[in-house]
Amino acid sequence: SDNLLLLPRNEIIGKTLAELYGAKFAKPFDEILQKVIENGEPYFHEYRSIVSGDERWFGAKYSLIYDNGVPTKRVSISIRDTTDRKKAEFALKESEQKFRLLAENIPGVIYLCNNDENFSMIYLNDKVQEVTGYSKEQFLEGTVRFPALYHPDDRDAIFAEVEDALNNKRSFTLTYRVRHQSGEWRWLEEYGIGVYSDQQLLWIEGFISDITSRKK
Q: Which of 178, 208, 206, 210 is nearest to 192 (CA)?
């Protein structure tokens, strides 16, 4: 497509990138070109440029050209506009940053976990250490697991309620005790729900708060 060339086709043919756009712009492209010629491996390069006053992102795939199975000194370059994908990536990253900022400032534990026998953690904010005495890294690495901290009298009820809620695709509310790292029992209140894609459970997300003072 001519709109990916930045300049009219007749102004490009027969000229180098340095001649067209300057040595500074051409340098990374020339280095990639030389690398592909030397090792024969394809290479994908993503870059941005201004087109008609609008910043656009492009992806260029470099592939060595072979003649009857013999490598040549020529390279084919296919270019596609990746602007929409990059904008989506930036939006997702911004959304994740906002979520993490919110999560780290909420007075309680926000989590994402798998629905397995250990409720193995995918994400936790730092507040979990205030609630349990253990760091989020210990939970994420699996050296500490929530079920191991449950009070024996509460454990079966927790699993039963979560399983019933997930089977019926509804949220759940739990009130139970965990043993803090200090050895004392803490009362927690937990709100959670399953996250699905095409009826397939992906993970459980929820919020846990320490209600020990209220219980006392």
A: 206
Helices and strands per DSSP (H, E), number in the chain: 9, 8
Instruction: Extract the tokens encoding 200.
Output: 């397939």
For 33-65, how does the pLDDT look when each residue is reduced to its tens digit (9 = 90+)? 999 999 999 999 988 887 767 788 888 899 999
The whole model's pTM is what? 0.54
173-202 pLDDT per residue, tens: 999 999 999 999 999 999 999 999 888 899
Quickly list DSSP for 10-67. HHHTT--HHHHH-HHHHHHHHHHHHHHHHH---EEEEEEEEETTEEEEEEEEEEEEEE
Residue the block writes with tokens 């320490």: 210
Token code pair at residue 193: 């729900």
- Check: CB of residue 128 under 8 Å from CB of residue 139: yes
Tokens of 120: 């193995």
- The widest CA-to-CA distance across the chain, in whole angstroms, is 83
Task: Report yes or no: 203 and 115 within 8 Å, Cβ to Cβ.
Answer: yes
